[in-house]
Predict the 3D structure of the following.
Amino acid sequence: MEGKNMNKLSIGVALVVSALVVGCQDSNFNNPISSDFSKNAPSLSKGNFSNPDGTFELKAQLTFGESENMENTFDLTGSIQYTLVAAGGDEPYALSLVTDATLQSLGSPGETGKVYAESIDFLDLSGKESVSYEKAYKIDQLARLLELHVAFDITPDNVSINRMWLAEVSGRLSAKGPK
């Protein structure tokens, strides 16, 4: 558990350092000889100061395939921690996600799956009211080959979950094998 917290801290520090490095690269702004500040001043927008972050607590019942079959229904519990940071460059936002969840089969009491993933994804939100972004997570320790899909709605000021669902995976040899 301590390693997971260090990983979360490392991701957060890396995002902040990346944002600072990108922000400090504008030599015109830092040049003390320049007398025309209005030309060299960075544009200020709400997105530059808003770094949405938080945790989505996951508690849901998800079904794939035939809904009448209890073996296809799972209780999902866990969390997704997120941070959205203006990163600059061609992909101006970095979305950091740490997902830690468990799926318990309602039809097979001993069948439990685990999802754990950390990622940083770069998104272009410029000129867009919102962006839909989908993430697929491998579910380990299940006899069946399933993935957890999460659809996010993202703006420079907000990250929200639009929906979640389970999907069968084709082409994976085993729940612990290669994709």
